[in-house]
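Convert to structure. Protein one:
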Amino acid sequence: MRLRVEFTTEPFDLEEAPAHAVAAREVIQKAQLDAVDVGPFGNTAEGEAGEVLGAVSALLRDALGAGATRVSLQVNVIGEDAP
């Protein structure tokens, strides 16, 4: 099964990327995921379910550990197995 994760971390800082945003993005960029898109207000990545779920776990741990007060995420099933 393939999954797509979309996420943002808060609080926002329009001047520079906060440590929690950098930590979350580093997790996603280092994971074995496809179609990684990192942006100023949202990030997405796709991959096999095990890889995405592992990355989400690390993303939550690292972002919260780096000062995030909120992590919003959505995970969708994509591809041929999607309902």
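Protein two, convert as well:
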Amino acid sequence: MSDIPANLTWERAAPPEATGPGPWIELAFGDNDLVYIRETSDPDTVVTTTQKKWDAFVLGVQAGEFDHFVEGVEGVGDGSP
């Protein structure tokens, strides 16, 4: 996409011990308080949001507002890795 800056520094949201290509979510923080999100399996598809919206999302995750999306998923919330 031509509107995605070429000089972004992508940060992979993966556990430190993770190896291989994923797929993982990657984030980049750009100018004008823009946040770019992509998947390693499809790096040409990028979603853009604002820093304010990203911060609200992160706070919601930390508060457990999205826990219902992972109910029943093995290894989530039961203490296993």
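Residues 51-62 form the longest helix (12 residues). The radius of gyration is 15 Å.
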